[in-house]
Automatic annotation (TrEMBL):
<dbReference type="InterPro" id="IPR041881">
    <property type="entry name" value="PqqD_sf"/>
</dbReference>
<protein>
    <recommendedName>
        <fullName>Coenzyme PQQ synthesis protein D (PqqD)</fullName>
    </recommendedName>
</protein>
<dbReference type="Pfam" id="PF05402">
    <property type="entry name" value="PqqD"/>
</dbReference>
<dbReference type="InterPro" id="IPR008792">
    <property type="entry name" value="PQQD"/>
</dbReference>
Length: 96
């Protein structure tokens, strides 16, 4: 299970590009085109932001409650992890 203190980061070597203003990750048939919120989550998974930070970033951007976006952020990060697009580390003890 993902902890709010876990730190997601984009997996090195995964191709990233913009096509018609949309973020596209991967190659050819395996490429994923992200929505605006998906792009925000993906770009926020930078190896420094914890899950809780990403939840706050998304909630602030869309002017909603963190409890409302938390399940969607965690689910999306889980899908990216399953696809090999995001990997995880734990936050340093000082950040906890």
């Amino acid at each position: 299970m993902t902890s709010v203190l876990d730190v997601p980061r984009r997996t090195l070597g995964v191709p990233i590009r913009r096509v018609a203003g949309r973020l596209v990750v991967g190659v050819e048939a395996d490429a994923l085109e992200f929505s605006e919120v998906g792009s925000l989550i993906f770009t926020s998974a930078n190896g420094r932001n914890r899950v809780v930070d990403i939840v706050h970033i998304v909630a602030a951007a869309y002017e909603c409650e963190t409890a409302e976006v938390y399940p969607d952020v965690v689910e999306f990060l889980g899908e990216l992890t399953a696809g090999g697009i995001v990997e995880w580390s734990s936050a340093p003890a000082a950040a906890r």
